Amino acid sequence: MPHTDATTVALARDGDCDAFRALMERHGRAVYRLAHRMTGSPQDAEDVVQETFLRAYRQLGRFESRANFSTWLHRIAVNCSIDLIRSRRHQETGHEAADLEHFEASAEDRVDHSPERLMLSTEVQERVTAAMAALSAMERAAFVLRHFEGQSIEDISRSLGLKTNAAKHSIFRAVRKMRLALEPFVET
Amino acid sequence: MMTHLTEDDLVLHYYGEMDAAAEARATAHLGECGECHGSYSRLQRVMALVDSVPAADAPEGFERVAWARLEAALPARRSGWLSWFVYSPARLGFAAIVLVLVTGAFFAGRLLSHAPSTTVATGATGAAPGGVRERILLVDLGDHLDRSQMMLVELVSADDADAVDISAERTRAVQLLAANRLYRETALRTGDTATAALLGDLERVLVDVAASPSTLTQGDLDEVRRRIDSNGLLFKVRVVSSDVRERQRAALKTQRIVS
């Protein structure tokens, strides 16, 4: 019978390397998915997975056995993703008016798709993925935290080290870009 | 009737981020204004599209590769080769000193280099005050590249057979992985992108080998060889290793002249 998370964590805390490996194998993919959403890059997602499990390993002693391991790990992964994004913040080039214009132009190219065709999930997936990929790192992180993680703008500003207004505007810009890219496909 | 809701108002309303009064006004307005209601409906549909796309899944074999990387980096409380450090505070201290020297040498190399150093292959012109540290780094990095090169050569030239035992190479790959990650991160931090890229390529192969079973089928071994060949890794490691040795000699010469 497979061990529960609580039992496996207890074994890992006692130095059982195989138990920690089991935890990684059980939760690694979920962490990867979150990290990929946050960072937009497979390689960064892999780095976040590694850092997340390293931190988790170091902090296992502080994990309360009554808590949910998956939720705890998820929080660490969000923090690791944010740390990576913040460390690269200086490298980010501005995504200002120019790329919004690009969005409008490229969205116009797509309006001739029929709704039937667009409902085919692969095409929709490609469009959404491309739209997400075109967000700046900060816009993407703020949007993912607000939209997928359900964090408040106040919390997001604290996590990302931004002023509340800046966090808000990152989300506005992200949503505006998503609308420009995707609205042609949801027109009725 | 209140003025129309802006696009940003609609976003705040969608996420429930308006204060109570603004929220009530927005809800009332959306009930009355067809234009704003239409715009809000489109926003909801766009968000529904976003929600319909699942997050990217990790590639096949992800757990195996992730564990190989993680295992090489895990600190104390474990068995295996890391126990060499774990059970000896003196060795741990020695490792810490080497880590500080290596990191310091990377920074010194960056700061003291005369030319804008984007690669370890640029000629060595280490200035005297950083000379010793740079030499330590060069010796260390050179040794690391040599050991990696030897392991790659052994894999590439292993005898063909139905089942090939690569346990020795696998053990070495695990050991090299931890050092390689340290060098790569230091190179990244110091902006030495060319070295970081080479070490990144090397790390992917080391991870593959470390995550492999001890015995490979001929097909698996061919796949490992193909990955080594595909980006000319062995050649690049040779070139950079040779350049590092050149720089090492030049740094030594400079040090002698100064002293």
Question: Could you explain the architecture of this structure?
Answer:
The complex is a heterodimer of chains A (188) and B (259). Chain A has helices at residues 5-13, 17-39, 42-59, 69-87, 97-108, 115-118, 121-133, 137-148, 153-160, 164-182. Chain A is mostly helical and 188 residues long. Chain A has two domains: 5-87, RNA polymerase sigma factor, region 2, helix turn helix motif (Rna Polymerase Sigma Factor, Chain: A, Orthogonal Bundle), CATH 1.10.1740; 93-185, Winged helix-like DNA-binding domain superfamily/Winged helix DNA-binding domain (Arc Repressor Mutant, subunit A, Orthogonal Bundle). In chain A, helix 2 (17-39) packs across helix 3 (42-59). The model of chain A is unreliable at 93-98 (pLDDT under 50). Helix content of chain B is 73%, strand content 2%. Chain B has helices at 7-14, 20-32, 34-52, 62-73, 83-86, 89-112, 128-156, 167-189, 193-210, 218-230, 233-258, and strands at 163-165, 215-217. Chain B has a two-stranded antiparallel ribbon with strand order 1-2. The A-B interface holds A 15, 17, 20-21, 24-25, 28-29, 32-34, 36-37, 42, 45-46, 49-50, 53-54, 57-58, 121, 124-125, 127-129, 132, 146-147, 152-153, 168, 171-172, 175-176, 178-179, 182-183, 185-187 and B 7-8, 11, 15, 17, 42-43, 45-50, 52-59, 62-63, 66-67, 69-71, 73-75, 77-80.
Highlighted features:
heterodimer, A: 188 residues, mainly alpha, Rna Polymerase Sigma Factor, Chain: A, Arc Repressor Mutant, subunit A, 2 domains, elongated, B: 259 residues, two-stranded antiparallel sheet, 2 strands
Structural class of chain A: mainly alpha
Distance between the termini of chain A: 52 Å
Give average pLDDT of chain A, whole number.
Answer: 83
Oligomeric nature of the chains:
heterodimer
Radius of gyration of chain B: 28 Å
Basic shape of chain B? elongated
Biggest β-sheet strands, sense, barrel of chain A: none
CATH superfamily of the largest domain in chain A: Winged helix-like DNA-binding domain superfamily/Winged helix DNA-binding domain
Number of strands of chain B: 2
Question: What is the average of the pLDDT values of chain B?
Answer: 77
Percentage of residues in strands of chain B = under 5%
Q: Provide the CATH architecture of the largest domain in chain A.
A: Orthogonal Bundle
Number of structural domains of chain A: 2
The best one-word shape of chain A is elongated
Summarize the biggest pleated sheet of chain B: 2 strands, antiparallel
* Low-pLDDT residue intervals, each spanning 5 or more residues of chain B: 78-88, 111-129
